[in-house]
Amino acid sequence: MTQTDPPPRLLSLDAYRGAVMLLLAANGFGLAAMAKGSDAPLLQWISFQTSHPEWISQFHGLGFALWDMIQPAFMFIVGVAVPYSFAKRTALGESRPKILLHAGLRSILLILIGVFLSSVRATDTTWIFPNVLCQIGLGYPILVLLAGRSYRTQAITAVVILVGTWLFYVLYPVQIPQSEDSKGILSGFFAHWSMNANAGSAFDEWFLHLFPHSESSTPNSGGYVTLNFVPASVTMLFGLMCGQLLRDERYGPSQKLRLLLFFSAFSLLLGVLLGLTICPVVKRLWTPSWVFFSGAYVVLLLSIFYWMIDVKKMRWWTYPFVVAGMNPLALYLMGMLSKGWVVSQLTIHLPKFVFAGMTKPVVEATLAALIFWLVVWWMHRRRVYLRL
């Protein structure tokens, strides 16, 4: 098979995507809500792992919170899939301009869907762009522009983007908010990345007010900013490079696995060093150190899925995840739009004891996720896939 042949599906990628999407659709299976307020060490750990941590995302050197890794994994997986999609379209005779046009249209649709989801419970259109679909849509054209390029070109582009992002924040004057609330306020050189007092939030103060009904859009309550998509495009670019590697016939499976593991270890080391020296590891601003720190773990997960499924052929457990992974947009939209309604119907029609006790959030989230999975399973059986 050459680089321009239609590629077979990478089963490990579908399973990886499915695992991430099920976690998203189920909102962490209600574990954070179950463990909230408990003093039990195990439940405190569960709560930490299934909640977004505070401003600084680096914990105990190499530690992390699982829920903080969901969006990086989602965006990374998009990048891994691009070489396969690009090769398929090229094999079908599509020119690069036509592929780029399709990518542009897809980007616009993703952004509009993201804005729609942000506006579901609002009285007006909420023009904000930090959610995962908007971030993917904004960065996707960069990804497709680099598809099929050399690893060197891709690596140089990544460095330029991250250095430029770092300079953008560093050159903006430090501004400490006049507030008694010190949440997210950093000291010293790291103050350039303080919550809602940084270059990204200053950009949003101007940019978001170009849209109607944007008075309540800034500052973002979580400190997220539109320009996160710029460094986040490097997370997707890491996925692109890994997907390109997995398609590269110059390397055998064991060589590919070693290269993935090496990159994961190197990325973690670099992320920690950057986080201790020149910029904090802040997921909500997608700092350069966060790009490498989170990149290490999402590449490691790809390595594990690839080794188990495509190298060792241990596929007996993959079917539920593959089904979910082949219809990610449908699963995501159901989780975002209908979870509340599904749970309300379940509480009406099922016995009350099912939802009794501290496990109620877990039962609700798990049953809703099961229903969503059955829908995408039905779609999969009929080869119906929601794609842009």
Describe the main β-sheet briefly: none
Number of distinct helices: 15
Shape: globular
The sequence of SSEs as H and E is HHHHHHHHHHHHHHH
What is the alpha-carbon Rg in Å?
21 Å
Uncertain segments are none
Mean pLDDT: 89
Based on DSSP secondary structure assignment, what is the total number of beta strands? 0
SS content category:
mainly alpha
- Strand percent estimate: under 5%
Helix content: 55-70%
Q: Give the distance, in angstroms, between the N- and C-terminal Cα atoms.
A: 27 Å
Mind explaining what this structure looks like?
- This protein is mostly helical.
- It has helices at 11-25, 31-35, 41-49, 70-91, 96-118, 132-146, 151-170, 199-207, 229-247, 253-277, 288-311, 319-325, 328-337, 339-349, 360-381.
- The chain has 15 helices and no strands.
For the structure shown, list the relevant keywords.
388 residues, 15 helices
